[in-house]
Each structure stands twice: as structure tokens, then as C-alpha cells.
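Allow me, if you will, to draw on your knowledge of protein folds for a short while. I have a record of one protein: its chain in single-letter code and its fold written as C-alpha cells. I should value your view on which stretches of the chain appear to form regular backbone elements. Thank you for your consideration; the sequence and its C-alpha cells are set out here:
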Amino acid sequence: MSTTPSRVFAARLVGLPVFDPQGDQVGKVRDVVVVLRADVRQPRVVGLVVEVFGQRPVFVPMTRVTGIDPGQVITTGLLNMRRFEKRAAETLVIGQMLDRKVRVKSSGVEGTVYDVAMEQTRTRDWVLSRVALEEAVKGFRRRGQTHVVAWDDVEGLHRREANQGATNLIASLSDLKAADAANVIHELTPERRGQVVAALNDERLAEVLEELPEEDQVEILEHLTHERAADVLEEMSADDAADLINDLPPETAAHLLELMEPDEAKDVRRLMSYGEETAGGMMTPEPVILSPDATVAEALARVRNEDLTPSLAALVYVCRPPQETPTGKLLGVAHIQRLLREPPSELVAGVLDTSITYLHADATLEDVATFLATYNLVAAPVVDEDGRLLGTVTVDDLLDHLLPEGWRDRKVGAS
């Protein structure tokens, strides 16, 4: 392993791409699996949890890891595609060890774990060798003093705590996309998941909830106070919030809608009035809407919003006032690819694609799929009987409804 550094910190591995010997990426590192034993000086690292494409976590033994670089992990390419299930004797470094309260034996210093280092021995085994910890904040300092000490000079790593905290686990997930963070949270124990949820801010929790399976969404929301649950629902996209509220007991759903801001609740109630598997039930009520006098420059500025998904940013909708759904009459749509070829001062209304028809709120999943395929689109406008824009259905909305239940847990390539 000539490319492998002598010491590797586990939290820095999270999110790194995993490649086979041919240079093809097979997944991303999610966690490090170790076996903790009180009678062993340096616990053995048995493998990595790797998320393969298709969002399925699998176990990769360290014997199949041939190199670890600062930006990648190289394997033999032989992966057991069985879904990872943690054994009783195993511990996840990221999911379970970060934020544990520990004490340094030699100095008496107390703090919380924010990272753990592993090293390769002469026998080519990987072991945990160092613990990075942060002292509690004292005085007016923003951060406590940090220490990196030998593994066997630390006590408290083997015990589980009821109030472990999640600050450092959250930090290790902060650079991950919401879908990747959701996959990590999905695998946590209920206690650890609760700690993480409590530490996340409302906006980040909303992003993660949108990527979790329905049963996880409901479980997490039911453990929040009603006030916080309403705040989180307000941060979610209206269509995802409507789907989640529909899965709650009717009395809980009604109470949360009452606690939400009126404008946010109005959009959610409107979506809930449509059938769940119709264009109305799937649509997003906040596409990019422009007035007839908007220029190409204005349109491009609007779609640069980093909060827009690629499918929502693919089309802009030109409507008569009002510009909030339900709008005035929809005059047409403009493709971003077309707008990129036009002078910035050109009116968007002059480059509209008026050749496509529009969907109605009662359109079925098959209708939506046929529409997107026919016009080679990733988003479709939904209008009412008067031609007013109600929202847009995107291809990712459609896939969420077409894929079988539990698709996130399906084996890649499984039939």
C-alpha cells in the first residue's frame, strides 16, 4: 500500500469515492466498522460501510482495501452486494463513537470525541491508534482545546451513553448531500438518530427528511414537538410536506397544519386536495414564474438559485398576473437551453415554446410519464380548466411514485 498514509482519520473518509482497480467508481464511504474489546490495546478495524450506486450500504472488508489516498479509496473491486447489517460485536465509528464523553488517563483531561485515527500494522491489519477529543468550552472561548492522544490512554470509549450528543457526527455529515446524510441517519440506532435530529437545524432536517423512506419520516416527525414539526414542514417543499402529512394520523395532521404559517399551510392543503397519484398531488407549486415583460437576463438570474433542483430550473413559465400559483393564464414555457442562446435583453415572451399541451391536475401517473416522454421534458406544467398555472410535475416527482416501495433498499441490478 505505497499510496496509503500511515495514519488515517475516520471522519475524513466519509463521502470519499471508492474505486475498483480499473478506475471505475463503485460507491462512497459512509462509515468505518470496528470491533471493540476491553482486553485489546488497539481495536481492529474490520471494514468500511460503502454506499454503492442505488443507495445501498454494503460491507467492504479491510482486506479488500488496497489503497487510501486523501481523495479516494481503492479496492480489489470484489464487493458482496448484500445489504450491510451491523453485528452485535461491531461498532460504527461515525455513527456511534463520535461525541462520546471520554477521559485521558495520563492527564485527567475530559472531553468529547470528534475523530478517531486508524493505522496499518506490520501484519497489514488496520487498528484504531489515536483519539481526537475536544475539551468542554471554558470561559469566553468559542471552542475547547483539542488533543490527539493514544487510544489506550483514553477511557470511556467502550461505554454507551444515553445523552451522547451529536455535534461532531453532524460536523462529519455537514459536507454530504442531503440524500447521503439521509442514508447515514437511516442506519443509526433510534437513540442516536434522535440525538442527530435534535442537533440539526430545521432547514437541514427538512432536506434530510425529503430523502428518507416514509416510515423514517413519520417516526422522526412523531418524536418532535408539534411546534418544531410544523416549523420543519414549512421548510420542506410543499409536495413533500403534503405527502408526509398524509401519512400522519388525521388529528395530528390537522393540528400541524393549524400550527404552520397560513401561506405555507395553504399550499400544502391545496396539494392534499388532489389524489396522491395524480399530477395535482405530485406537483410542486413553486416553479420559476415570470411576467410577460421579463427579459432573458431576468430568467437566467432566477434559475441560478442554488435551491432549485435541475429539473425545476429547466423550464420557466410566463404567466399573466398574479405570479403566484394559481397564476393568471399561462402564456407558455421557455427552455433554459434556448434562453442561453438568446441576447440578455430579449423578452422571454418572444422565445416561448407554445407547441406543447399542458397537463391537468387529475392526470394519472401514466399520463405524466407519457407527456414527459413525448416532449422530451424533465418537467411539465399543470393547469386548471381556465389555463391558469397550478404547479409543475418534475421527473423526480414521477420517479418517487413509480418506483416500488422501499426502492432505496433494493439491491443494485435486482429485478
About this structure: The radius of gyration is 25 Å. The chain has three domains: 1-176, 201-273, 289-401. The mean pLDDT is 88.
